[in-house]
Batch of 2 targets.
Target 1
Amino acid sequence: MKTSIATVSLSGDLADKLSATAAAGFDAVEIFENDFLAFDRSAREVGRMVRDAGLEISLFQPFRDFEGLPEPQRARAFERARRKFETMNELGTDLILVCSSVSPLALGGIDRAADDLAALGEIARAAGVRVGYEALAWGRFVSDHRDAWEIVRRADHAHVGIILDSFHTLARGLDPASIRAIPKDKIFIVQMADAPRLDLDLLSWSRHYRNMPGQGDLPVAEFMAAVEATGYAGYYSLEIFNDQFRAGSARQTAVDGRRSLFFLMDRLKAEGRAVNGFSEPEPLPAPARTRGVSFVEFATDGASARALSAMLVSIGFRRAGRHRSKDVELFAQGDLRVVVNTETEGLAHSSYVVHGTNVCALGLRMADAPAALRRAEGLLAAPFREPVAPGEQELAALRGVGGSLLYLVPDGDALARQWEADFALEPGWDAHAGAGLVAIDHVAQTVRYEDILSWTLFYRSIFDLKVLPPVEVPDPGGLVRSQVLENADGTLRVVLNGSQSARTLSARFVSQFVGPGVQHVALRTRDIFETAKTLAGNGVAVLPIPQNYYDDLEAKFDLDPATLDALRHHSILYDRDEAGEYFQIYLKALEGGFFVEIVDRRGYAGLGAPNAAIRLAGQARQTPEGLPTR
């Protein structure tokens, strides 16, 4: 597959955009005219920059309001086109995008438009360039790719073809199957974009809310399948108008874009659909099957480790062993494993220096760790390797949120073999029941608001995770967007939180102290009430919940008085859905804003979203040490 991205999709000036495009491994770039006009280099110099970066220019765009004009505007449009063709020759590209007219002066008529394009094709032939005609979803007379194709067909010129754009077709609810009837040699380029389902006018929707394939709700796979059915083997180019992307990292957006195209093509291949021109060093393995979280690793220093270790012991963990060659301790409770790393060199130490005490790594239990690594690398994830001592187990790892690591742990090694190889373990280390905590229910990672889509695509494309509808949660300082991904059996749930408001707890965690990363881990218990008694006996400070909440709970649910009293006494939050019940306790936050949640899930499918505002308000009143209040 030949890949391209439009400069309008990326932040920065034209030089930044070209650098990011090349670094992500694209074959070509679309030059958006405004990016070129605002740049202080000539067309010839820009063309040289593109070629020096190892790229081609797949398209120069857009050329607006051309067809169907009366005189003298028609003559002026042809003169504008001649000037653009000269610029294209200087740039070193042979294709321009002509989008269907929105001009109030346009007269309409398929034959009139076809005659104009045929005449433009003659000028293009003389200039050695090609014209691609695209139907804008909000075009005045042409808003459907079927009408655009009929105009191109009637123009009947070798230098005139159609440009297909997934957004313009799918946003109008058009069936892409009709694309299959277009001859492949008349499709000059295909532009790809996804988008969330929104009740907006088409222009606003397009200009602000497009995203990468796989990040939205449009049937982009059906669109690509229709294009592939024609035998098309040209560029698939990303044209993404998105305010978040233009505020984010150009390099990350470019990587996301190329990953999204590979992911989309891989989905077609997995469904047994024919694909053209898609070559890989080797086929991607299936989405990596996950079995849950194997371990959580903290990076800290000696002084902070004492407080962290004391907290772990107070909630039922025991010291299980010490690493054979590193300043690393293992804590265990049932099948739970927590690592406390106080090394003074290596990645964990670097993470501590930058972020303070933080979760620097997660271990994911994988059904097939080698296949997971191959898929991740094929989808442009960054692998990580750190030297290990002789006899110690080396685990494949990927770079994750905030520079943290995701270790890919073979499922058979997760509970014992991994630890036996690397640690001097205490007798009976894996038989400690503690406070009844049995597994990690979910992990919440707080990221920059503009990066939520990026990390959603990362997890969704590599692992066997489905994306649930996003939720907006009210924090006293603003709204927090929460995106949940989970596997089929619920053994792995990842929550991505981000906020545009600088005053929310999530935003302050990112911007003013720790940076993007794991903000909380939810540990599942067999019996929330027994665990709560153990915590109380150990003097564990939990987040206090207002009595008003319990008065409302009494009115909302038919809870027996004893249960309601126990909830109130232990500051336990409660929710119920059609599948079952859910109980939550939050511990007070540690230095830096990290906190632990303890849950009891009794058939319940969600994450207690109705309680999130109560929790956030309580945490806002209990600002953790080291986290600024503004």
Note: The longest helix spans residues 250-270.
Target 2
Amino acid sequence: MAERSTAAVDVADNSGDEPLTAKADEATADGTAEAQETEGTSPQDTDGERSPSETASATPDLHSGHKLARRYRLEECVTRLDGFSSWRAVDEKLRRAVGVHLLPADHPRARSVLAAARSSALLGDPRFVQVLDAVEEDDLVYVVHEWLPDATELTALLAAGPMDAHDAYQLVSQVAQAMAAAHREGLAHLRLTPGAVLRSSTGQYRIRGLAVNAALRGIAADGPQRADTEAIGALLYAALTQRWPYEVDAYGLTGLPKGVGLLAPDQVRAGVHRGLSEIAMRALANDGATASRQEQPCTTPDELAKAVAAMPRIRPPEPSFTAPPEYQRTTYQQGSFGRPPTAPGGAATQPVMPAPPAPLQSRTGKALKWAVSALLIAALGLGSWQLAETLLDRGNDSGGTGTTQTNPENGDKNIPAPAKPLRIAGATEFMPGGSGIKQEDAPDAVDGKPDTAWITPQYQGYANFGNLPNRKQGSGIVVDLGRVQDVSGFTIKMYRSGQKAEVLSADENASTPSSLSDFPQRLTKIGTVGSSLAERLDRPVRTRYILIHITELPPDGAAGLFRGGISEISVRG
């Protein structure tokens, strides 16, 4: 009987519901022959040459409509290469698109692919395209992963032209931080190409194929951290110059001229940010050589992430506005009121408008002017007094119901204008322990529907998420506002009363925060909350990310069981 094992507990439910926008590899023109890789050579591509025995196993002869595990229906083959194939498929159980890598169980790399997929699934970092299932069944091995519909490959972004300094900064910062986190867990990518990096509609970068892409192709490296660091440097170089930093054309990009060596990005293209140019060269440095004599090469993703964080902040470019049409002066403003217009022949005609009357110069005129002025002053005074009396009367009338028109804490200061709701760009599960609970349900907490919610499973024995090692810091929801904004308040409807929670915010310079230390600003004190948690801040806080952090859950039904969650989140500016 075939053996079937999943990548992690309930890993099939850890989903994103979006397909990849571009194929990972190109197929041949007729779509039937084995795909030929057209990618450029870099140090990570030259390792792990395949022996003839590795290619002996043929790619399984499957077709559209074939169903795996009575669940995953194959739709379209996007890669057929070196004994394995990659497909776009549909998870009929959860009704979502997924991606599937598929190879025979007797393929020489089948064991390593399964091991890589399971390790990647256990990481659970939302900055990576998640592995949802890793299965051996019916003489087949297949790996199921997320399929992201609203994301764009870096290959397509670079085809449109080089990035501006802010976008390139976000790219290298987010990718370096994500890979540093992966290497801390012992995971390497080794195939970090432009096709492996995706940018979502909210500007967040996600990396696909962690460990799995290299395992599928038999790629290994003696120094995996150095290989991934140089790959990030190549991505930054391409983002700044729209050129590939080697003497070959790759990924739709032109390589550097042969024989001239590695030129700094600011020497290849005018206007490149000097600091980012140096960062790229420090990441690409070989054998200790670097374009900057003052700075040491970056040899690990963590060193690269710290070097990027130490740079002065690069702000996004100012939006450009269309200039309004030139203001046209009227005839009166041009000083021609009452003047006779000039005829085509140059002769003046009779004035059309009569000249204004002369001012009153006699004593009678002066007296009349003084009288009119006095009457106006008296009328204004009387009107002001009546208006004040009316307002006072209204205040006294409303006082009987227990409300006043002024804030007793602020004296007679004006009441601030009501806050406006802010649009929420997305929500992700807070996973400080590295693995998620119900990641696919996180958007239900911000969809505006009271009947949907992010709900935890039941935990037994302990209110602090079962006292599990990977739940020591709790869980919750991270709200993404799409950009840095002023936040003046929020309302959170809890799935159940009695949860111990707090609300924190990230610094305005934070990028994809994932740990408690990334949320230094405390917006509420931690404590047990009821069915909702509402707060109006004394002073607005500038941030993009807000964390609703839950540390303990309330009892759920039978004794010893605990469960919680969040039904709806709204934020005001």
Note: The longest strand covers residues 532-552.
